Amino acid sequence: YDPCNLFVKNLDDAVIGNLEDLKKIFEPYGQISSAFLATYPDSNITKGYGFVAFAKREDAENAKEKLQNSFVGKKRLFISWAERKEERSKRL
């Protein structure tokens, strides 16, 4: 896994409707190097998950610890370390 990259799911699309909304939740914890919010291509409605990568591992760890299971809107966030598809497939 990448120790700076977080996988975030269970995003409430009423609160997190675009990439900037996702970044706003994580920005207080450190410099974000990249972020991605999965959306349906035909409507731009979010799929309820995304990725946030921090410049520093410590910032990613802190954000994961502080935001895990916190409510954003009406949904509780689930955060884990992002894994490449190949790594996840081997494990499953």
UniProtKB/TrEMBL annotation:
SUPFAM superfamilies for this protein: RNA-binding domain, RBD (SSF54928)
Transmembrane segments: none
Domain RRM per the UniProt entry, residue ranges: 4-84
PROSITE patterns: RRM (PS50102)
InterPro entries xrefs: Nucleotide-bd_a/b_plait_sf (IPR012677), RBD_domain_sf (IPR035979), RRM_dom (IPR000504)
UniProt key word RNA-binding: yes
Keywords: Repeat, RNA-binding
One Gene Ontology MF term: RNA binding
Pfam family membership, one: RRM_1
Coiled-coil positions: none
Name the UniProt record assigns to this protein: Rna binding domain 4 in polyadenylation binding protein 3
Organism: Sphaerosporella brunnea
